[in-house]
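Intended use. Records like the one below are meant for learning the mapping from a protein sequence to its folded structure. Do not use them to infer anything beyond what is encoded.
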Amino acid sequence: MTVTVRSITTAEHLAFVEGLASASYLQTPAWAGAKPEWTSESLGWFDGSTMVGAALVLYRQLPRFKRYLAYLPEGPLLDWDTDRLGELLAPMTRHLKRRGAFGVRIGPPLVWRTWHAATIKAAVADESVRSLTEVRPDVTDPVATRAHNQLRSLGWLPPKPDGEGFAAGQPTYRFWVRLTGQSEESLLKGMNQLWRRNIKKADKSGVTVRVGDRSDLATFHAVYAETARRDGFTPRPLSYFETMFDALQPEAEDRIRLYLAEHEGDLVAATIWTRVGGHVWYAYGASTSAKRDVRGSNAVQWQMMRDALAAGADVYDLRGITDSVANDDPHLGLIQFKVGTGGEAYTYLGEWDLPLNRLLYKAFDVYMARRG
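Structure written out for the chain above:
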């Protein structure tokens, strides 16, 4: 196998993505438009004249130097089921180095370990267990394990513990509900009693869910900002979501949606959906402190799941969770909310770094840490 890597057009990139069963929306060419603070490039992998891989590369410049971190979020999109991974990554590295990269960060889109809902519930109930890392996974994927071992042998640096390293990362621990072979009835049956009761209560209370448009983003953002204050995280500005919609919406009819759950004219919960192929993500969510008893969050999630099922999706992805299952962890409620859907926790291999210039790589790490 002799593979070459070169820049490709947006059309070539999109055609490759659309030929896949699933790919992260962070690897679509449109995502470059959602990240205007980064420069970008679409890359193609070629075996002869046949394109066998693609990636969106985001470049973040080191201040005062024309040198860059090359970041491939949840990519590249390759056939990772190989024992010759170096032959795929080496030409990419050479290309990025020529473009001025001092370091490369990739996020192999491989599900490595999976924990079923029953396993997570048992871990939460066991006071001696504080993290999913202490719990034997129900499934460990051999392809991902082989890729993990190859990356180490090729000199790539494994993911750093949470809170360390420059802040350009995606969550390693996530949660999803598999939709293949499911019906609305089986999805409901797979949920816990609290989820089923809350869905029913939302319906009886008169909660309605509709798909909004860009003009509704300001309303969504007001609730999102309230959620940030309540839950103690820093919210993204309204302009971020406007840019995200403007970038993703033209690329494909179903790439992004805004869902609004309302009760008697009041917005009580809202979510943003993204979709590529058979994969639907719950990308962002928000809810009000008022009228929590009408269960708008459950209603909007249920509508998104039903719509994902109707669209023929294979997976409904609720995105990030922490690995903690400790009863005194403030994030435990998030994993309990998601595990109530009857889905699974899973982890990718995480994000791996290859320093091409160790001095500049370290300087960038320090710079990002100071920025917070």
